[in-house]
What we know:
Chain A is an alpha+beta fold. Chain A is about 55% helix and about 10% strand.
Amino acid sequence: MRTGPCLTSVWDIDLATTDPFEEANRPLDKKLLRYIWRNTRAEQIWILMVVIASMPTYFLVLDLPVRIINEPIQGVGFESADATLQFLDLSISLPEFLGGATWQIFEGFALERWPYLLALSCSFLTLITINGLFKFYINTYKGRLGERMLRRMRYQLVDRVLRFPINHFRRVKGSEVASMVKDEVEPFGEFIGDAFVQPVYLGGQALVAFIFIMLQSFWLGMIAVGVIAIQVTVIPYLRRRILELGRQRQITARLLSGRIGEIVDGIAAVHVNDTSNYERAELTHRLGKIFFIRYELYQRKFFIKFLNNFLAQVTPFLFYVVGGYFAIRGTLNVGQLLGVINAYKDLPAPINGLVQWDQKRVDIEVKYAQIVEQFNVSGTMDARMQAPTTDKIDPLTGTIVVSNLGVVDDTATVLLEDADFSMEVSDIVAAIGPIGSGAGTLANTIAGLQAPTSGRLMIADRKMQDLPEAIRGRRFAFAGSESYLPQSSLFDAIVYVSKHVPLVPADPDNLPEPLHPRAAAEVKASGNSTLDYQADWVDYEAMGISGPDELYRKIHEVLEVVEMDDVVYALAMRQKLDPTTYPQLTDKLIDMRNAMNDRISQSELNDFVSVWDWDRYNENASIAENLLFGTPVDEDTLQTDRLSRNEHIRAVLRDEQLDRAMFDMGMELAETAIELFADLSPDNPFFEQLNFMTPEQLESYPPILQRAREKGFDGASDADKGMLIELPFGYIEKRNRLKLLDEKLEERILKARHRFHETLPDDMKEAISIYDVESYNPINSLQDNILFGKIAYGTSNASEKVNELIGELMDELGIRDDIFRIGLEFDIGTGGKRLSENQRQRIVLGRALLKGCDLLIINRGLNSLDGRAQAKLVKRVVERARNTEHRFGVLWVLATSRLAEEFDQVLVFDRQRLVAKGTPQDLAQSSDTYKSMVA
Amino acid sequence: MSKLKDEVELLRTIPVFSELPANKLKLLAFASDHMDYKDGEVLFEQGDVADSAYVVIKGGADVLVTPEGETQSNKVAELGPNSFIGDMAILADITRTATIRANAPLSTLRIRKDHLIDMMQDSPTFTMAVLRELVLRLKKTTSDLSDAQAEVARLKG
């Protein structure tokens, strides 16, 4: 609940007491085994016990075959025909030195030779089943243990990233961190389950097998000891180099993924500087390094494998020779020898396993140390600073006092020196100065994005650095010039800033993503965050609204301030809607289409939109659109750029003798395209205007055109015909203006359209969604559905006027809000790249306004906008800040200094110093620096 | 004859474009939009961000300038067919220095900024021609200015 103690309770957390945050704050253990033990002690002990419990069964599995061979098969104890032996006699004997007393628990059944054999064999079957089940349980348990630890580790690593000091991010590459968290940690999961179990399990097995061999024959046991001794000493020595190689492999691979990330992010620089070949050479060099590291690794690995196998094979040879000798001499019976060889077969596996476990341990320790080094960053924030709190955070009031503030970055560059000033949280203050003058640094320092190196930064008599993120992040709002937005819907990108803590639990019966029944238990078991991702996190109260119902209105309000509301409507127009999800809305949109058509036909808009008409050719649409009179739905049957390959279309064109005309048009288009574009590079901006061909296709046309000229339509091959007929499908008369179509041809295309639909084969009926004035077409955008036609080329302001009309109709039909919501569902793309930078900056500012804050800090937040737009937005935001309804303070580092006149106070920065401060009017009198900046 | 060919012919009669090879001229025409305006419609407003230049095919337009600090605009020139409008703003990345309003039904060819700049990077002769055009304009502006100054001096004195 959001009542009770407020601000102070968060503020006054005693940093000395122990609590769950202590765990998050301690650096990662330097030793992996300690890390694993600390986090999974109870589970490790349990599984160890299970392993120990499985040992007797394992011994019996080894022991029973000896008895089977010796007693029923070879006949020891069955010397007479009616002799019997006791089966299942359970007795406990004390060793000789304790008196050798024997207690009979169960005397067993007396069985003859054949039933005895059967009974022993069945016992053997039971035992191997139990043994297998043990193994199954142990492996599953280990797997789960490992996966939990993996989950915990990944969580802890990212948790640390969230608390890294901000300036650390200048040194780390995102893709390298990602590669560490994702790939490098992966093998840990496997190892963690084995960390303690494996040595005990394998060691136990080896010990049991070894004891068994020793019981059968001391000398054979010694042979086994000798071979094991070689394995245990020589192989680790050989493996030392492998470990070093493994470490190198890990580092080079991480650098590779970092480098690839850089190529992708810096792709523009590659293109504009023709450095692609430099990149290739660099990549080759890097891959070469990796290759030789890996190659050496393989060579050494397989040599060790060879040696291991060899030793394993040599031992049975010794057993045959030595054991055979004893057997011949009669000091060892055949059953024992077979038992020894059988046991030995099982011995190298555990021994090998142990050696491997140890190597893996060292290998993983190396990797772990690497990761620990990367993630134990000094200056990592105290986890308490990010403590989730549902307490209501009271508005911040009071004075921000900056005294002697200095900021120096990690390269010892002075960013800000000796700044002194104070402002009320509610003041409206501008900071001006060129980039690097210190103004931005001040804003970032107050926002907590930069740590002060000297001086003091106080708010309401408390140190600003002690402000938990719960206060800073909720009562301050920040918009910088960097406008990175993670991929999401526009809606999610906007409300992101208001998601601090889950407030309303999700309805368990109606979850967007159903949860595994054990989800909560596993979260606990792996020490992850217990906060529910699927709850409603949006802090409506801080926005000044009562709940989700008012959210859209609020979003609309702030987007209006940053002039993004129209953009949202425009985005809505590009969205595709499924009528089954939005039945009412799509019905309304059909009404809108009809109203639109009425208006268009009665007004000057007639010039702007050419509406689809079954009996008229639409010159603002391509030939393909005119012919199909619909949108292809199923790419498999009807591919938009391969229409000429479709049987039915070919038949229609042939029947209407359009194929010849299209062929001629194709020749003319190919000719034009080759003439105009052949000598341009494929990324030339002109190619955007070539709507009937791609730059790649262009290369294949000169020879086709040549052949077509020589042979004509009748002589041309089917392939050439197809290639040429394909071109005019994309041709738009009004846009391309080549005058390829006259009324007669258009008439014929119309006839072809009719024939196409009248003779449409059944298997194509689903592949095309016909332009039907009565129904909503889910394949087309919302706007196409409303217009039911094409905006005309070449008429000025056509789209503006159409939008105006759409706006009017939205209001008339009362669907403006619905359309707005649809627009907010727009997927903004990775990094928000589907929006322009300008739009992203507006969104970042808009959502800062949405959140409801006491102080809005803006650091050149609108620098990609032109001067006029900046001026407009600054005025609007300042006006909103002064409005009593919202009333918040502003600290705005202006990209355009002359806008400082809009503010109550101005801080003037120059060469990392605060050189003047005061009202704009005073500064205009007293400060030359101010005057020169504002002029 | 196709519209495109007419447009190419028209571009050729404009001094700036006359130096461009035939296929480049055609490419420019191909990539440009044919835009029609009604009498009184505005092509762009003073202060707008510039993204394209215009060549008048048919009709005419007024050049209107609002001096800084004033609200009323003055008509400073009239443009007829073959005029090349708005090239300055797209070359220097400045906002529009004047408002252009059709004074009769107007047909234009709209050339996008990227395309014009690409042409200039491609063809030094074209760049020189643009330069020459700008210098001539500057010369005219300078002489207008000195005339105006002389006029002011005369009125003062």
